[in-house]
Amino acid sequence: MNIHKLDKVAKSLIKEAAGRIRASFTTELIIESKSEANDLVTNIDKETEQFFIKNIKQNFPDHRIMGEEGFGDDIQDLSGYVWILDPIDGTMNFIHQKKNFAISLGIFKDGEGILGYIYDVMGDDLLSAALGEGAFFNDQRIPRVEHAKVEQSIISINASWVVPNKYIEHEGMIQLLNKVRGTRSYGSAAIEILYVVMGRLDAYVSMRLSPWDIAGGIVIANEVGAIVTTLANEPINLMGQNTFIVSKPGLHGEIVGNYVKLK
Fold first, then answer.
1. What is the DSSP string of 161-175?
2. I want to staple 135 with a disulfide (CB 3.0 to 4.6 A). Which of 113, 129, 174, 175 is the partner?
């Protein structure tokens, strides 16, 4: 399989899907809840995933798709070519803010990430990477990320993890927030990974992400030297949910070693 053909098709589908999403603002939005009241999905999430699946299957019939909305294949392993897709990462932002949401896509071959994409739909910004070829922002090569220290960093973390919760000892998170220069939270894992890769953030921490939230971002982060692991400092398992940190070098070890205590 020619990786450049894959890349060309993927970028074309992303751009067309984004145009469809933007056009949807003039149509009726049907909103439903999934696992709980704030886990939202819309008809546009579903239609966008179906658009990708139809076109991927037409171009690459033997490729499989893991999609958030469940219209793809029943993926039990990552053998062969697997596209891991979130058609709208940040659905709550899509509904309430009409910005800060993204299309997230990673293409894997036998478990290895070979292409990654994060497309900021409303910003019309595409972050992409190919294995061994670096990362690009709107087709301009971006530099590798620099080392960072806690006291000089801006990190992204949801406030839910700084109050008592069932995933992590919140006291350590409070200590971390007292040490860093600043915090942010954007409500989209893909957008927050994009910001770390671009140097707008120094780290992003989450307790509960699915493969489609992070697959594309992992490929991109690896190409610029950002460190991606679980909060237990283990490799990400793309067959299930994970705790997650993507960080500049140096800062990763400080956060995981000194402030994280999982329950």
1. GGSS-SSB-HHHHHH
2. 129
